[in-house]
Amino acid sequence: MTVHPVRLFGDPVLRTPTDPVTSFDDRLDRAVADLMDTVRHEDGAGLAAPQIGLSLRVFVYTCGGKEGHLVNPEWEPIGDEKTFVNEGCLSIPEISEPTERYARVRASGQDIHGNPVSFDADGILARAVQHETDHLDGVLFLQRLTPEHRRSAMAEIRSSSWFGNAAISAGVIHDQLVEPTGVK
After folding, report:
1. Where does Fe cation bind (predicted)?
2. Annotation marks residue 179 as catalytic
3. Best CA proximity match to 73, nearest among 119, 9, 6, 140
4. If the chain, 184 residues long, is cut into consecutive pieces of 10 residues, what is the mean pLDDT of each piece?
């Protein structure tokens, strides 16, 4: 299909919650194919629709030895164990900071035909499910960081070669992050 440019930090689409998918049609098929082509091209673990400018509640993943997509995803933790490892984002290039996530999750949603899908995930796939679902809710991983790590990430972002262009084109203030509202 098509490889799309990944929207960068500062683009308002990344901070806007998506609408649930209600039409399981050719448009959705194309969106999922484009997302998968783009995440493979970028060598990422996952990619959510807003990252290519689409307000669709869908993401793709290619990590942990698995590839797929989830439409209208939800997740819940399996147990209380959490991990605190470096996490990055294709929309925030070159930035990686320790981020707390649940170690295991149960993901559910639909496939491109509207059929129910569910699976248990751990490791990087569990992290990708949580990270990409955050994107669909307009939440960036920066909002999950400790204050010290957030300050460090913001300093790196401000000094990055891409930040000025993304900041100017989006026309928004980038260092005023809002705390996420709870966990799914």
Report:
1. 89, 131, 135
2. no
3. 119
4. 91 96 97 98 97 97 96 98 97 96 98 98 98 98 96 94 60 38 38
Binding site residues, as ranges? 89, 131, 135
Which residues are part of a known binding site for Fe cation? 89, 131, 135
Residue matched to tokens 């997740």: 75
**Domain coordinates in residue numbering, the chain:** 12-163
Asked if 150 and 142 touch (Cβ cutoff 8 Å), the reply is yes
Of 1.10.357.10, 2.60.120.1440, 3.30.365.10, 3.90.45.10, which CATH number belongs to 12-163?
A: 3.90.45.10
Buried b (16+ CB within 10 A) or exposed e, 25-48: eeebeebbebbbbbbeebebbbbb
* Threshold 0.85, pTM exceeds: yes
Per the listing, tokens 């995440």 go with 39
Q: Single out the catalytic residue among 76, 81, 94, 132.
A: 132
